[in-house]
Task: structure prediction
Amino acid sequence: MTDDAAAITLLIVDDHPVVRDGLRGMFESAPGFRVLGEASNGVEAVALAAALDPDVILMDLRMPGGGGVDAIRELTRTGARAKVLVLTTYDTDSDTLPAIEAGATGYLLKDAPRDELFAAVRAAAEGRTVLSPAVASRLVSAVRTPRAPANDPLSAREREVLALVAKGTSNREIARELFISEATVKTHLTHLYAKLGVKDRAAAVATAYERKILG
Result:
């Protein structure tokens, strides 16, 4: 695809100018791609997508002034033609699942090799789903794990902590297993106690089983 008219057109969305410059330079130096514009947040992205009508939008997720997931939802709601390929440093459940559910065609991490990114954009332009291996395994795990009821107020991380508490795991062991600090474990416990309306670990586990958040 060397013909400019046949090139895949792109909109780059990232709050870091250096990242945008790097991506623009990368795509403009490769045949078959044409960068139409750049946006620094999700709100700008939605407006520019309407004005420029790109084939593919490279979308970061966490941006001041308008996040990527909200932008993807709005693009889906308005029936935008562009395919959204998430390109971010985050691969947690709280980032991955909402982005895919909002309508993203693909999800790659920023450490993806150059050729993998080019291939992903081509695939996205054709409407094919593209997922980095880490994200794909998370999605498979999420699909295989029964979801908590809709009234479950806990975040994915809080449910992880609660599941370990139910196994009798200490705060120190939970911290080690989840690669977080003990202070963070205590914060998660404080939040989930408040959400479940309980005051200790035993009550939290009992309430979680009662509400079918666990089990």
